[in-house]
């Protein structure tokens, strides 16, 4: 939230000085491309490690195998199943212009990149939502959908417990049949 808020405030000062619509559009296209590349890198650095780390830790895969399998499957998953999440992040938090969206992606990516450098697994979803909320704070509280945000936060609270429960059930089931 903080990185997004500060980045938006600082970069919008320079961006708003540009009067030419053509130059603004060109800058937005460049920002979208560069921040999209940065986001892909940061997400890969964070999420693939989160997913395949346990397999490497147990010696089931070596690092290159884990990265290849993890990256490939994550790319396939994003192509097949991310439509609803894209809509939730893009529409259910705050209304955003292209500049706002670029700043949110930049802030999310920076957060994930820093945590990856520190070797600390973190939630890309929380980074994404937090950066979008930061943009919402800049735009004003009236632009924010607190009902949508509260549903997401509820999901963050429920998810670890539900995941633990599912893991326990699967473990007990597999122990019983093996």
Can you walk me through this structure?
- The chain has one domain (2-144).
- Helices cover 83% and strands 0% of the residues.
- The chain has helices at residues 2-15, 21-57, 63-81, 83-91, 98-118, 124-139, 146-177.
- It is globular, with a radius of gyration of 19 Å.
- The mean pLDDT is 90.
Number of helices: 7
- Approximately how much helix is present in the residues? over 70%
Strand segment tally: 0
Secondary-structure class: mainly alpha
Estimated radius of gyration:
19 Å
Strand content: under 5%
Total number of distinct structural domains: 1
Instruction: Give unreliable regions as ranges.
Output: none
Query: Could you report the average pLDDT, rounded to the nearest whole number?
Result: 90
What is the terminal separation in angstroms? 47 Å
Principal-axes shape call:
globular
Main sheet characteristics: none
Give me the strand/helix succession: HHHHHHH
Short note summarizing the structure:
The chain is an all-alpha fold and 178 residues long. It has helices at residues 2-15, 21-57, 63-81, 83-91, 98-118, 124-139, 146-177. The chain contains seven helices and no strands.
Write the layout of secondary structure elements.
Layout (H helix, E strand, L loop, with lengths): L1 H14 L5 H37 L5 H19 L1 H9 L6 H21 L5 H16 L6 H32 L1
């Amino acid at each position: 939230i903080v990185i997004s808020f500060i980045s938006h405030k600082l970069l919008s000062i320079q961006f708003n000085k540009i009067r030419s619509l053509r130059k603004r559009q060109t800058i937005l296209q460049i920002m979208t491309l560069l921040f999209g590349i940065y986001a892909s890198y940061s997400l890969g650095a964070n999420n693939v490690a989160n997913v395949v780390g346990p397999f490497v830790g147990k010696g089931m895969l070596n690092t290159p195998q884990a990265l290849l399998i993890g990256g490939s499957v994550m790319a396939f998953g994003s192509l097949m199943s991310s439509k609803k999440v894209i809509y939730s992040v893009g529409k259910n938090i705050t209304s955003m212009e292209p500049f706002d969206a670029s700043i949110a992606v930049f802030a999310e990516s920076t957060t994930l990149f820093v945590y990856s450098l520190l070797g600390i697994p973190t939630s890309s979803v929380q980074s994404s939502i937090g950066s979008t909320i930061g943009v919402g704070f800049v735009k004003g509280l009236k632009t924010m959908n607190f009902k949508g945000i509260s549903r997401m936060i509820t999901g963050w609270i429920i998810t670890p417990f539900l995941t633990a429960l599912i893991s326990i059930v699967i473990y007990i089931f597999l122990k019983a049949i093996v």
